[in-house]
Specification:
By secondary structure, the chain is α/β, with parallel strands linked by helices. The chain is built from five helices and ten strands, in the order βαβαβαβαβαβββββ. It has helices at residues 13-29, 46-69, 83-93, 115-124, 144-157, and strands spanning 4-9, 32-38, 74-79, 98-103, 129-133, 164-165, 169-170, 174-181, 184-191, 197-202.
């Protein structure tokens, strides 16, 4: 069975769904997980490079947090290079025995988690590659009321239970809920696929 599972991530719901699948599988079979973020060509301007780095850090942190919830060891790595070849080289170097990839990623690094890259990885590695597709039926948060409920829960656990919550705005892969209290303004970003919420203080 599997002992080392590799999951490339890019910050998209598709990638997060694949990471959750990898963690659950690792929990069942007693494996550990390697989460890899491929930052690509670093010749971009400073602001773009910072945005890419922040996206990678958040994506890897989410995998690590999910691993902690299931007592699964998660190692995280950021690499540069052409995605498919970098993933394949990392898989070989770390002796993984399964690669789990989300497909049709659109948020973050679209060049990473799409079908053609997954197919190339499959041709370049000697271990199985499992692709996980996220369809609309697997969206965890489908209504404004549900988004508001999750936002209120996040505010409560972070000590902002008295904040005034506004109506959510719906983006393609997330809900954003604005809230205010006497200490400031906040946006709660809710992943539509997983329901995971992150609070960002504004200003």
């Amino acid at each position: 069975m599997y002992t080392h599972i590799l999951v490339p991530v890019d910050g998209s719901p598709e990638a997060e769904n694949a990471a959750r699948h990898a963690v659950h599988l690792a929990d069942e079979v007693g494996a550990d997980v390697h989460a890899l973020y491929v930052s690509g060509d670093q010749s971009s301007d400073e602001s773009t490079a910072k945005a890419i780095a922040d996206c990678g850090r958040r994506a890897l942190e989410e995998v690590r947090e999910h691993g902690d919830e299931h007592s699964v060891t998660v190692d995280t790595t950021v690499s540069e290079g052409e995605p498919a070849r970098t993933i394949a080289e990392f898989a070989t170097a770390t002796d993984v025995d399964l690669v789990v990839m989300g497909t049709h990623g659109r948020n973050g690094v679209d060049r990473l988690l799409n079908g053609s890259v997954a197919e190339r990885v499959g041709r370049l590695v000697s271990v199985p590659v499992t692709t996980i597709r996220l369809d609309d039926s697997r969206q965890a948060v489908t209504s404004p009321l549900e988004a508001q409920r999750i936002a209120r829960e996040k505010l409560e656990v972070t000590g902002h239970e008295d904040a005034v919550v506004e109506s959510p705005s719906h983006q393609r892969t997330a809900w954003v809920v604005h809230a205010t209290d006497d200490r400031g303004e906040y946006n709660i970003h809710i992943n539509s696929a997983s329901g995971r919420a992150k609070l960002v203080q504004l200003g």
